[in-house]
Amino acid sequence: MKFKQxxxxxxxxxxIGSEFIGDENFTIKGINEIHVVEKGDIVFVDHPKYYNKxxxxxxxxxxxxxxVDCPKGKTLLISEDPFRDFNILINHFNPFIASNxxxxxxxxxxxxxxxxPNVFIGKNVRIGKNCVIHANVVINNNCSIxxxxxxxxxxxxxxxxxxxxxxxxxxxxxxxxxxVIIENQVELGASCTIDRGVTGDTKIxxxxxxxxxxxxxHDTVIGRKCLIAAQTGIAGCTVIEDEVTIWGQVGIISGLxxxxxxxxxxxxxxxxxxxxxxxYGTPQRQYRQTLKEIIYLKNATNKDKx
Length: 306
Prior knowledge:
Helix content: 10-25%
CATH superfamily of the largest domain: Hexapeptide repeat proteins
Radius of gyration: 22 Å
Number of domains: 2
Distance between the termini: 66 Å
Largest sheet: 10 strands, mixed
Protein backbone atom coordinates (compact mmCIF):
# COMPACT_ATOMS: atom_id res chain seq x y z
CA MET A 1 0.00 0.00 0.00
CA LYS A 2 1.61 3.22 -1.16
CA PHE A 3 0.97 6.50 0.63
CA LYS A 4 -0.37 9.47 -1.33
CA GLN A 5 2.79 11.37 -0.36
CA UNK A 6 6.11 10.55 1.27
CA UNK A 7 6.52 10.75 5.06
CA UNK A 8 9.55 10.96 7.29
CA UNK A 9 10.58 8.36 9.81
CA UNK A 10 9.77 10.77 12.64
CA UNK A 11 6.28 11.46 11.26
CA UNK A 12 5.50 7.75 11.17
CA UNK A 13 6.99 7.23 14.64
CA UNK A 14 4.77 10.03 15.98
CA UNK A 15 1.64 8.36 14.56
CA ILE A 16 2.28 5.12 16.49
CA GLY A 17 4.18 6.63 19.42
CA SER A 18 7.31 4.54 18.92
CA GLU A 19 11.05 4.97 19.22
CA PHE A 20 13.07 4.92 16.06
CA ILE A 21 16.62 4.21 14.93
CA GLY A 22 17.98 6.14 11.96
CA ASP A 23 17.75 9.57 10.37
CA GLU A 24 14.49 11.22 11.44
CA ASN A 25 14.13 12.64 7.90
CA PHE A 26 14.47 9.21 6.24
CA THR A 27 11.66 8.97 3.66
CA ILE A 28 8.90 6.36 3.75
CA LYS A 29 6.61 5.75 0.79
CA GLY A 30 4.30 2.95 1.91
CA ILE A 31 3.52 -0.04 4.10
CA ASN A 32 3.45 -3.65 2.92
CA GLU A 33 3.64 -7.30 3.88
CA ILE A 34 6.92 -9.14 3.51
CA HIS A 35 6.05 -10.85 0.19
CA VAL A 36 5.35 -7.57 -1.65
CA VAL A 37 7.64 -5.03 0.04
CA GLU A 38 9.70 -2.60 -2.01
CA LYS A 39 12.30 0.04 -1.29
CA GLY A 40 10.68 2.82 0.73
CA ASP A 41 8.18 0.48 2.46
CA ILE A 42 7.58 -0.39 6.09
CA VAL A 43 7.32 -4.07 7.00
CA PHE A 44 6.46 -5.43 10.44
CA VAL A 45 7.97 -8.38 12.32
CA ASP A 46 7.15 -9.56 15.84
CA HIS A 47 8.84 -12.97 16.14
CA PRO A 48 12.60 -13.68 16.35
CA LYS A 49 12.20 -16.49 13.82
CA TYR A 50 11.48 -13.91 11.12
CA TYR A 51 13.80 -11.05 12.17
CA ASN A 52 16.48 -11.83 9.58
CA LYS A 53 13.93 -12.22 6.78
CA UNK A 54 12.42 -8.81 7.54
CA UNK A 55 15.74 -7.06 8.10
CA UNK A 56 17.14 -8.42 4.83
CA UNK A 57 13.98 -7.82 2.79
CA UNK A 58 13.49 -5.02 0.25
CA UNK A 59 11.74 -2.97 2.96
CA UNK A 60 13.81 -0.01 4.14
CA UNK A 61 11.96 0.56 7.42
CA UNK A 62 11.33 -2.36 9.79
CA UNK A 63 8.68 -2.15 12.50
CA UNK A 64 10.12 -4.53 15.11
CA UNK A 65 9.65 -5.41 18.79
CA UNK A 66 13.34 -5.51 19.74
CA UNK A 67 16.33 -3.20 19.39
CA VAL A 68 18.70 -4.89 16.94
CA ASP A 69 21.55 -3.77 14.72
CA CYS A 70 20.11 -1.65 11.95
CA PRO A 71 21.17 -2.71 8.44
CA LYS A 72 22.96 -0.08 6.37
CA GLY A 73 20.59 2.14 4.41
CA LYS A 74 17.59 1.19 6.55
CA THR A 75 15.75 2.43 9.64
CA LEU A 76 13.91 0.80 12.52
CA LEU A 77 10.69 1.58 14.35
CA ILE A 78 10.85 0.01 17.82
CA SER A 79 7.41 -1.08 19.03
CA GLU A 80 6.08 -3.11 21.96
CA ASP A 81 3.45 -4.52 19.60
CA PRO A 82 4.25 -4.30 15.85
CA PHE A 83 1.01 -6.08 14.90
CA ARG A 84 -1.05 -3.45 16.71
CA ASP A 85 0.97 -0.58 15.27
CA PHE A 86 0.78 -2.00 11.74
CA ASN A 87 -3.01 -1.88 12.16
CA ILE A 88 -2.80 1.71 13.38
CA LEU A 89 -0.89 2.69 10.24
CA ILE A 90 -3.29 0.87 7.90
CA ASN A 91 -6.25 2.55 9.56
CA HIS A 92 -4.53 5.95 9.49
CA PHE A 93 -3.66 5.89 5.80
CA ASN A 94 -6.56 3.84 4.45
CA PRO A 95 -9.47 3.96 6.90
CA PHE A 96 -12.70 2.08 6.26
CA ILE A 97 -15.33 4.49 4.94
CA ALA A 98 -18.94 3.40 5.39
CA SER A 99 -21.33 3.74 2.47
CA ASN A 100 -24.73 5.40 2.67
CA UNK A 101 -25.97 4.34 -0.78
CA UNK A 102 -26.27 1.01 -2.58
CA UNK A 103 -24.14 2.25 -5.47
CA UNK A 104 -21.55 4.82 -4.44
CA UNK A 105 -21.63 8.22 -6.12
CA UNK A 106 -17.86 7.97 -6.69
CA UNK A 107 -18.00 4.55 -8.37
CA UNK A 108 -17.19 4.56 -12.10
CA UNK A 109 -19.21 2.20 -14.32
CA UNK A 110 -18.29 1.79 -17.99
CA UNK A 111 -20.67 2.04 -20.93
CA UNK A 112 -22.97 -0.87 -21.78
CA UNK A 113 -22.36 -2.54 -18.40
CA UNK A 114 -25.46 -4.09 -16.82
CA UNK A 115 -25.98 -3.84 -13.06
CA UNK A 116 -28.83 -6.07 -11.87
CA PRO A 117 -31.04 -5.19 -8.84
CA ASN A 118 -29.67 -5.34 -5.28
CA VAL A 119 -26.01 -5.07 -6.29
CA PHE A 120 -23.83 -3.18 -3.79
CA ILE A 121 -20.98 -1.12 -5.23
CA GLY A 122 -18.68 0.61 -2.74
CA LYS A 123 -16.57 3.74 -2.87
CA ASN A 124 -13.86 4.18 -5.50
CA VAL A 125 -14.93 1.04 -7.38
CA ARG A 126 -14.17 0.99 -11.10
CA ILE A 127 -16.14 -1.26 -13.48
CA GLY A 128 -15.21 -1.43 -17.15
CA LYS A 129 -17.30 -1.66 -20.31
CA ASN A 130 -19.71 -4.44 -21.32
CA CYS A 131 -19.80 -6.12 -17.91
CA VAL A 132 -22.75 -8.02 -16.42
CA ILE A 133 -23.07 -7.89 -12.63
CA HIS A 134 -25.93 -10.12 -11.47
CA ALA A 135 -28.29 -9.62 -8.54
CA ASN A 136 -26.97 -9.47 -4.95
CA VAL A 137 -23.30 -9.18 -5.87
CA VAL A 138 -21.21 -7.17 -3.37
CA ILE A 139 -18.26 -5.15 -4.66
CA ASN A 140 -16.56 -3.48 -1.71
CA ASN A 141 -14.52 -0.27 -1.62
CA ASN A 142 -11.57 0.25 -4.00
CA CYS A 143 -12.11 -2.85 -6.15
CA SER A 144 -11.34 -2.64 -9.87
CA ILE A 145 -13.06 -4.65 -12.62
CA UNK A 146 -12.01 -4.70 -16.28
CA UNK A 147 -14.02 -4.93 -19.49
CA UNK A 148 -16.34 -7.79 -20.42
CA UNK A 149 -16.46 -9.27 -16.91
CA UNK A 150 -19.40 -11.44 -15.81
CA UNK A 151 -20.12 -11.90 -12.09
CA UNK A 152 -22.92 -14.25 -11.03
CA UNK A 153 -25.27 -13.68 -8.10
CA UNK A 154 -24.16 -13.50 -4.45
CA UNK A 155 -20.45 -13.25 -5.17
CA UNK A 156 -18.47 -10.95 -2.83
CA UNK A 157 -15.37 -9.02 -3.87
CA UNK A 158 -13.13 -7.32 -1.34
CA UNK A 159 -14.03 -9.05 1.91
CA UNK A 160 -11.40 -8.74 4.66
CA UNK A 161 -8.42 -11.09 4.87
CA UNK A 162 -8.60 -14.08 7.22
CA UNK A 163 -5.51 -13.02 9.17
CA UNK A 164 -5.39 -13.07 12.99
CA UNK A 165 -2.92 -12.91 15.85
CA UNK A 166 -3.70 -15.09 18.87
CA UNK A 167 -3.72 -13.23 22.17
CA UNK A 168 -4.64 -14.29 25.70
CA UNK A 169 -8.04 -12.58 25.40
CA UNK A 170 -8.81 -13.96 21.93
CA UNK A 171 -7.89 -13.25 18.31
CA UNK A 172 -6.81 -9.85 17.00
CA UNK A 173 -7.58 -9.22 13.32
CA UNK A 174 -5.05 -7.66 10.95
CA UNK A 175 -6.83 -4.87 9.08
CA UNK A 176 -7.10 -5.11 5.31
CA UNK A 177 -6.05 -2.02 3.37
CA UNK A 178 -5.58 -3.59 -0.06
CA UNK A 179 -7.96 -4.25 -2.92
CA VAL A 180 -9.18 -6.75 -5.54
CA ILE A 181 -8.36 -6.39 -9.24
CA ILE A 182 -10.35 -8.35 -11.83
CA GLU A 183 -8.94 -8.05 -15.34
CA ASN A 184 -10.75 -8.18 -18.70
CA GLN A 185 -12.96 -11.10 -19.76
CA VAL A 186 -12.93 -12.81 -16.36
CA GLU A 187 -16.06 -14.75 -15.32
CA LEU A 188 -16.92 -15.42 -11.69
CA GLY A 189 -19.58 -17.95 -10.69
CA ALA A 190 -22.27 -17.63 -8.03
CA SER A 191 -21.39 -17.29 -4.34
CA CYS A 192 -17.64 -16.86 -4.79
CA THR A 193 -15.68 -14.94 -2.15
CA ILE A 194 -12.51 -13.05 -3.01
CA ASP A 195 -10.65 -11.37 -0.15
CA ARG A 196 -8.88 -8.05 -0.60
CA GLY A 197 -5.14 -7.85 -0.05
CA VAL A 198 -3.86 -6.85 3.36
CA THR A 199 -1.71 -4.11 1.85
CA GLY A 200 -1.48 -5.15 -1.81
CA ASP A 201 -3.88 -6.54 -4.38
CA THR A 202 -5.66 -9.84 -4.83
CA LYS A 203 -5.65 -10.24 -8.60
CA ILE A 204 -7.44 -12.40 -11.17
CA UNK A 205 -5.89 -11.95 -14.61
CA UNK A 206 -7.41 -11.75 -18.05
CA UNK A 207 -9.58 -14.54 -19.41
CA UNK A 208 -9.77 -16.69 -16.27
CA UNK A 209 -13.06 -18.49 -15.59
CA UNK A 210 -14.14 -19.44 -12.07
CA UNK A 211 -17.04 -21.72 -11.12
CA UNK A 212 -19.49 -21.38 -8.22
CA UNK A 213 -18.55 -21.32 -4.52
CA UNK A 214 -14.82 -20.74 -4.94
CA UNK A 215 -12.84 -18.92 -2.24
CA UNK A 216 -9.67 -16.95 -2.99
CA UNK A 217 -7.63 -15.65 -0.06
CA HIS A 218 -5.89 -12.30 0.40
CA ASP A 219 -3.02 -11.21 -1.87
CA THR A 220 -3.37 -14.26 -4.10
CA VAL A 221 -2.67 -13.84 -7.82
CA ILE A 222 -4.51 -16.00 -10.37
CA GLY A 223 -2.91 -15.99 -13.83
CA ARG A 224 -4.39 -15.67 -17.32
CA LYS A 225 -6.77 -18.22 -18.86
CA CYS A 226 -7.09 -20.39 -15.75
CA LEU A 227 -10.10 -22.65 -15.12
CA ILE A 228 -11.15 -23.18 -11.50
CA ALA A 229 -14.06 -25.50 -10.68
CA ALA A 230 -16.57 -25.35 -7.84
CA GLN A 231 -15.75 -25.49 -4.11
CA THR A 232 -12.05 -24.87 -4.55
CA GLY A 233 -10.32 -23.01 -1.71
CA ILE A 234 -7.10 -21.09 -2.31
CA ALA A 235 -5.37 -19.59 0.73
CA GLY A 236 -3.68 -16.20 0.83
CA CYS A 237 -0.42 -15.09 -0.83
CA THR A 238 -0.54 -17.89 -3.40
CA VAL A 239 0.49 -17.50 -7.04
CA ILE A 240 -1.39 -19.52 -9.65
CA GLU A 241 0.41 -19.03 -12.96
CA ASP A 242 -1.24 -18.86 -16.41
CA GLU A 243 -3.39 -21.64 -17.91
CA VAL A 244 -3.69 -23.71 -14.74
CA THR A 245 -6.74 -25.99 -14.47
CA ILE A 246 -8.12 -26.68 -10.99
CA TRP A 247 -10.99 -29.15 -10.66
CA GLY A 248 -13.60 -29.27 -7.90
CA GLN A 249 -12.93 -29.24 -4.15
CA VAL A 250 -9.20 -28.61 -4.44
CA GLY A 251 -7.52 -27.05 -1.39
CA ILE A 252 -4.30 -25.03 -1.64
CA ILE A 253 -2.39 -23.75 1.40
CA SER A 254 -0.89 -20.26 1.58
CA GLY A 255 2.26 -18.92 0.04
CA LEU A 256 2.67 -21.45 -2.79
CA UNK A 257 3.36 -21.12 -6.50
CA UNK A 258 1.62 -23.39 -9.02
CA UNK A 259 3.51 -23.41 -12.33
CA UNK A 260 1.94 -22.53 -15.68
CA UNK A 261 -0.08 -25.30 -17.32
CA UNK A 262 -0.50 -27.45 -14.21
CA UNK A 263 -3.67 -29.53 -13.74
CA UNK A 264 -5.02 -30.30 -10.26
CA UNK A 265 -7.56 -33.12 -10.26
CA UNK A 266 -10.67 -32.99 -8.07
CA UNK A 267 -10.15 -33.10 -4.28
CA UNK A 268 -6.40 -32.62 -4.48
CA UNK A 269 -4.82 -31.14 -1.36
CA UNK A 270 -1.81 -28.99 -2.29
CA UNK A 271 0.80 -28.51 0.44
CA UNK A 272 3.85 -27.36 -1.55
CA UNK A 273 4.73 -25.37 -4.67
CA UNK A 274 4.33 -27.41 -7.86
CA UNK A 275 6.14 -27.67 -11.17
CA UNK A 276 4.05 -28.19 -14.30
CA UNK A 277 2.25 -31.53 -14.21
CA UNK A 278 -1.01 -33.28 -13.36
CA UNK A 279 -1.60 -33.97 -9.66
CA TYR A 280 -4.09 -35.87 -7.54
CA GLY A 281 -4.63 -36.80 -3.89
CA THR A 282 -3.76 -35.45 -0.47
CA PRO A 283 -0.95 -34.64 -0.19
CA GLN A 284 -0.64 -34.07 -3.95
CA ARG A 285 1.17 -36.66 -6.07
CA GLN A 286 1.72 -37.09 -9.79
CA TYR A 287 -1.59 -38.33 -11.23
CA ARG A 288 -0.22 -41.19 -13.36
CA GLN A 289 1.87 -42.53 -10.50
CA THR A 290 -1.14 -42.47 -8.20
CA LEU A 291 -3.25 -44.36 -10.75
CA LYS A 292 -0.55 -47.01 -11.10
CA GLU A 293 -0.48 -47.50 -7.33
CA ILE A 294 -4.28 -47.76 -7.14
CA ILE A 295 -4.33 -50.37 -9.90
CA TYR A 296 -1.47 -52.30 -8.27
CA LEU A 297 -3.24 -52.37 -4.90
CA LYS A 298 -6.52 -53.38 -6.51
CA ASN A 299 -4.85 -56.27 -8.36
CA ALA A 300 -3.02 -57.37 -5.22
CA THR A 301 -6.29 -57.36 -3.25
CA ASN A 302 -8.04 -59.41 -5.93
CA LYS A 303 -5.20 -61.99 -5.88
CA ASP A 304 -5.50 -62.31 -2.10
CA LYS A 305 -9.24 -62.92 -2.44
CA UNK A 306 -8.61 -65.67 -4.98
